[in-house]
Amino acid sequence: MARARVALRVGASNPKSLLFFTAFFPQFIDPAAPVLPQFLLLSLTFVAGDFLVMGGAAFGVERVAPWLHQAHVVRWTNRACGGLFALLGGLLLFARRNA
Q1: Nearest 5 degrees, angle CA 7-CA 12-CA 16?
Q2: Is residue 16 a contact partner of residue 10, using CB atoms and an 8 Å limit?
């Protein structure tokens, strides 16, 4: 339980999170209606969605972790990621940017 409290404090004090919420939420808040209930609904919706995604990722990783520790899987993962980075770097060489 102590870890959960520490994680909550770290998440709540993260300046990136605070900046995201102050930039993102006002677009969806009606100034003519009470602000607090709207903000709470948006916050709870975001937290529930985040919990589902992070929880699903944690359970998914737990199931595939033994497979990911195999040497041949690591080797092919490194090759695939390296190839993808090389491809993206090559595409950047030919990208045109209008100034």
Answers
A1: 110
A2: no
Q: What share of the chain is helix, strand, coil (3-state, %, to 5)?
A: 85, 0, 15
pTM of structure: 0.55
Helix (H) or strand (E) holding 25: none
Maximum Cα–Cα distance across the chain: 60
Q: Structure tokens of 86?
A: 């090389």
Mean pLDDT for the chain overall: 87
What is the per-residue pLDDT for 34?
93
What span, in angstroms and rounded, lies between the C-alpha atoms of 18 and 12? 7
pLDDT per position as a tens digit, 23-50: 888 899 999 999 999 988 998 898 899 8
Closest CA to 87 of 97, 75, 79, 76: 79
Structure tokens at 27: 């677009």
49 vs 43: CA distance, rounded Å: 10
